[in-house]
Design a protein that fits this description.
single chain; 235 residues; alpha/beta; 9 helices
């Protein structure tokens, strides 16, 4: 009753169109209907698939990634990309909070073998974190960890300042990330099922680099949890 009264006085507004959302989330019904939910995708890397009978994408059949499974909610397309850019580059933490809530609604209870024991965020180099003011992957990991009662450990450190991955092809991304990550707190990794948390999975280069160092440290299994998955061109 108190909440309803507060909603009348101070209604939430949609972060995309600024119209009143009329409920607790900062997203109106019309904009929610426009969200590019992931749908049918590769069971390994979550790449959107056109064939309803396909279970794995061609990339994973030819060269399986180091991680076992990617759990994502959305395609990295409009208007999801707008919310992510605002969260990542323009300090609009409300957009990140909304996307984290949407992920929980879509992927809330990863059951069985998909439920990890520990969340590990992809790190930022200290220079980029200082410029940005926060690590968006750490904020996501903390939000999901609180909601799902999972511990969060900053086990990875970015020891080398690298150019942004955006705009690079797959080979350039691999070269860019060579020896970029180092491991902290190795005892927290050994024998455990880890979910690496990131905002977007594009080529999987960052995810593979993180998974490789965690597996080398004795992780039993590594999955990827991300807000959005980039589809192939033309999808």
């Amino acid at each position: 009753m108190v909440y309803n009264a507060l909603q009348l006085l101070f209604p939430c507004h949609c972060l995309l169109c600024l119209a009143p959302s009329h409920h607790r989330q900062e997203l109106c019904a019309a904009c929610r209907d426009e969200l590019p939910w992931l749908g049918h995708c590769c069971l390994r890397c979550a790449l959107p698939l056109n064939s309803p009978d396909a279970r794995l994408c061609g990339h994973c059949l030819r060269r399986p990634p180091r991680f076992e499974h990617c759990l994502s909610a959305l395609r990295y397309q409009f208007p999801c990309d707008q919310l992510l850019v605002n969260f990542k580059y323009h300090r609009q933490l409300a957009s990140g909070r909304l996307l984290a809530q949407l992920w929980l609604q879509h992927c809330r209870d990863p059951a069985g073998s998909h439920r990890p024991q520990l969340l590990v965020p992809i790190p930022l180099h200290w220079r980029r974190r200082w410029t940005r003011g926060y690590n968006q992957s750490l904020l996501l990991a903390q939000h999901w960890g609180d909601a799902l009662s999972l511990p969060v450990c900053s086990a990875l450190r970015r020891g080398r300042h690298t150019p942004p991955q955006q705009g690079l092809n797959a080979a350039q991304r691999r070269r860019n990330l060579r020896d970029a990550f180092t491991l902290q707190h190795p005892s927290s990794i050994n024998g455990r099922h880890i979910a690496v948390v990131d905002d977007v999975l594009t080529t999987g280069t960052t995810a593979n680099a993180a998974a490789a160092i965690l597996l080398a440290a004795g992780a039993r299994r590594v999955d990827i949890w991300c807000l959005a998955r980039t589809p192939e061109p033309g999808q």
